[in-house]
């Protein structure tokens, strides 16, 4: 039976109370109740889907109250988690960096200031802030101008040494190089909008009479546009940056407005170009060129601080932002080992996970783009159970996507899934998608108010994305009752989860579609 809106509200209240409870207690003996037996039967039926005949499925369901395992299949098998990797990255960041952590971007003087002249260099120094917009660089430039500086006799020096110079993650696919969800990682970067896709620019096309008009957000000459597109009866356009350049070539036909998010080459130079442009607008002229190095003896003129991590977790987790994951990974490395590297940051994440009972974990990046990332369903559920006792848990839990909630920064990558079912506004979980990989892991409150944790990882299928299988499992868990078992027949006919998400990428990665 479908829940009424009133019962959905009541269910959300029960869920809130359940997840505010104490950490997990020691596991009890297996529950022999018919409810658990029927749950096992129904989940087995769901997983018997023919699309998984040649694939692999690792699934675990546990009671968050007792730690009791309610269901398990291939729980200890190493699986590719895709963006479920972000569960580990985000939780480790909350622990290692703290919810009050902020990134800083500074303007410094390397030289002497005489009147309105800086005899020396002006330095732009970053620590990886993925939320820096063109407007933020403008505000930083205005603060420099407010110091009375009008002329810089030296160079604009970019200092991105807070992180190392390795820009792309291990094992990332070469053909993702220009995709904004695989943008280069730098301690100096910029985002085009408040999704904060660091290191990318939005290229917009639209018909303008018999020609195609092209614009960028932010406005920048850092990228070179080669417009070979024509006005046509339909929009079938390719907007792609050429390898190892900042030349973006546009081909195909355009019938209406269309936007594409494109990763730039060298985010440090991108940030510098926005800052220099803003300085010019505020009457500050730099005579020299832009160079990249770490200066000595520079004095701070102005700085910008990002939102705290507690707020950044929302766009990071709701929209499954890969760049946030990698930047936070390097930030952790800098914090614990004074090394802004993937290796140091991944060690910090792995050490955190192991300290919280996770036994099997192989991380190659922070986002899950690498196909060599490996984790088990048991490892994920262990993490989900363990972090319930953390002081930052509620903030982290609230940052997870929420099933069926249409608000983009609430439902996130689950906003179009499981609508009109007992899972809607109940399931808080992280999605994950790569070609032949899908995953969903998180929290759900049962029909009786019992908090559950679950992990579902499906690998190596050759069909279209079987996310509906994940949804069916999550809905069944929301209907779980120890005393009034649901039946397989009810499962097939009631509360069929609706989902508009498909394909091999996270829903929020498909920017032009905004599914």
Number of domains: 3
Low-pLDDT stretches are: 1-17, 20-31
- Indicate the radius of gyration in whole angstroms: 25 Å
Can you tell me the CATH topology of the largest domain? Answer: Beta-lactamase
The total count of helices amounts to 13
The average pLDDT value, as a whole number, equals 91
Q: Assembly state here?
A: single chain
Instruction: Let me know the CATH homologous superfamily of the largest domain.
Output: DD-peptidase/beta-lactamase superfamily
Give the name of the CATH architecture of the largest domain.
3-Layer(aba) Sandwich
Please describe the biggest sheet, giving its number of strands, its sense, and whether it closes into a barrel: 7 strands, mixed
Determine the fraction of residues in helical runs and give it as a percent range: 25-40%
Number of extended strands: 23
Q: Beta-sheet strand percentage?
A: 15-25%
**Coarse structural class:** alpha/beta
**What would you call the shape?**
globular
CATH domain class of the largest domain? Alpha Beta
Separation of termini?
A: 28 Å
Question: Can you summarize this structure?
Answer:
The chain contains 13 helices and 23 strands. It has 515 residues and is an alpha/beta fold.
Question: How is the secondary structure organized here?
Answer:
Elements: H1 5-19, H2 34-47, E1 56-63, E2 69-73, H3 85-96, E3 104-114, E4 117-126, H4 134-146, E5 151-152, E6 156-159, E7 200-208, E8 211-217, E9 224-227, E10 230-231, E11 236-241, E12 247-254, E13 258-263, H5 267-281, E14 285-286, E15 290-292, E16 299-305, H6 309-318, H7 322-337, H8 342-355, E17 361-362, E18 374-375, H9 377-386, H10 393-399, H11 408-411, E19 417-419, E20 428-434, E21 437-445, E22 451-459, H12 467-478, H13 488-493, E23 498-499
Parallel strand pairs: 4-5, 4-6, 5-14, 6-15, 9-12, 10-12
Antiparallel strand pairs: 1-2, 1-22, 3-4, 3-16, 7-8, 7-13, 11-12, 17-18, 19-23, 20-21, 21-22
